């Protein structure tokens, strides 16, 4: 069976090809993909900010309907509406301990598929996925919203490691897609959430979602956080912008003792951070890094989407057909954009 599949053939060049799907294994499912959202890492590969081997098939933020299952599949059935998490080896030691993200079995970046393409293809009208990567979504939910499962899951993972408790105050630096999702997860866990940003559009979106905002173009965000917390500072700060200034700012926003910092965003090129270890030592700080998500986090994210924990549609910027994949990437690369959602089925 052939699938219409998006591929990055060169920097700033994307096209759709007819690609043969692999045979369905006993633990595989065939999915009719309705929507695939373009991730930051993918448009970074498109514009050259992130170096990836080409030609690259891609797509890990997708949602669709199961149309066929392998002989050993028992957790999903034909007709189920699902979204994608990560595939992994369920029998590995990390998996048995719940750390499924540490035993992913994704296509190696250094070795192409048999047909010469690097990566895994989810931005297509059909795709083959591992059963363990599939999470049920309630029918009727917008596929572009359902496709937010993967980025939302990574925010659930970050918060689980963050160590912040119900009722505490969290500041999120940056109101892009991942900053807002981090803020919504923290809010869902009962935190007071303040988000900082300078772009009017992003500030408006955050406000629509019920988040307290600080417009950093109009005030000193550190002083404003102090004012809003009665001089105390934030219990925790989530850094959702990969910039050196954000790390320094987080230290100043955080309360003097026992503050928690979550380093969520990666920056390309890698930002520098001059951190005095004595500061961490004497202020008794907890600094946590987070990347990816485990199965438990994707289950939480699916629950948040299914119960309508927030109006996640605010983070879907525009829907563009698969056959206009070049246009989709060009839109995704524009500053300040939320998710561009590729619609993978013809009307």
TrEMBL record:
Among the GO molecular function terms of this UniProt record, one is: oxidoreductase activity
Q: Is NAD there in the keyword field?
A: no
Entry's InterPro entries? ADH-like_C, ADH-like_N, ADH_Zn_CS, GroES-like_sf, NAD(P)-bd_dom_sf, Zn_alcohol_dh
Domain spans labelled Alcohol dehydrogenase-like N-terminal: 25-138
Pfam families, per database record: ADH_N (PF08240), ADH_zinc_N (PF00107)
Keywords of the record? Metal-binding, Oxidoreductase, Zinc
The UniProt entry's coiled-coil ranges are none
| Swiss-Prot/TrEMBL cofactor(s) | Zn(2+)
Query: Is Zinc found in the keyword set?
Result: yes
Q: Which residues form the Alcohol dehydrogenase-like C-terminal domain?
A: 179-305
| SUPFAM superfamilies in the record | GroES-like, NAD(P)-binding Rossmann-fold domains
As for family, the record states: Belongs to the zinc-containing alcohol dehydrogenase family.
In Swiss-Prot or TrEMBL terms, this protein is called Zinc-binding dehydrogenase
């Amino acid at each position: 069976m052939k699938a219409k599949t998006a591929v990055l053939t060169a920097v700033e060049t994307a096209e759709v090809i007819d690609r043969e799907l692999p045979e369905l294994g006993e633990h595989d499912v065939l999915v009719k993909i309705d929507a695939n959202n373009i991730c930051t890492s993918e448009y970074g590969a498109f514009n050259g900010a992130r170096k990836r081997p080409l030609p690259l098939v891609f797509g890990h933020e997708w949602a669709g309907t199961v149309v066929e299952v392998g002989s050993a599949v028992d957790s999903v059935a034909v007709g189920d509406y699902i979204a994608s998490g990560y595939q992994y080896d369920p029998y590995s030691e990390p998996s048995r301990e719940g750390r499924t993200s540490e035993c992913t079995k994704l296509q190696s970046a250094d070795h192409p598929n048999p047909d010469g393409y690097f990566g895994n293809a989810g931005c297509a009208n059909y795709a083959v996925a591992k059963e363990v990567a599939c999470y049920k979504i309630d029918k009727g939910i917008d596929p572009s919203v359902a496709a937010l499962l993967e980025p939302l899951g990574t925010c659930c993972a970050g918060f689980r490691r963050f160590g912040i408790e119900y009722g505490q105050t969290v500041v999120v630096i940056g109101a892009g897609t991942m900053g807002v999702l981090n803020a919504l997860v923290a809010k869902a866990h009962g935190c007071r959430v303040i988000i900082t940003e300078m772009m009017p559009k992003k500030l408006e979106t955050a406000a629509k979602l019920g988040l307290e905002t600080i417009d950093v173009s109009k005030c000193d965000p550190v002083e404003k956080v102090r004012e809003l917390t009665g001089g105390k500072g934030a219990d925790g700060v989530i850094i959702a912008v990969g910039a050196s200034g954000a790390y320094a700012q987080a230290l100043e926003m955080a309360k003097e003792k026992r503050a928690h910092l979550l380093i969520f965003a990666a920056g390309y090129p890698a930002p520098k951070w001059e951190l005095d270890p004595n500061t961490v030592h004497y202020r008794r700080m907890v600094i946590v890094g987070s990347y990816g998500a485990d199965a438990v986090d994707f289950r939480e994210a699916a629950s948040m989407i299914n119960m309508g924990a927030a109006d996640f549609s605010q983070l879907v910027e525009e829907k563009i057909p698969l056959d206009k994949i070049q246009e989709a990437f060009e839109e995704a690369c524009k500053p300040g954009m939320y998710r561009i959602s590729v619609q993978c089925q013809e009307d």
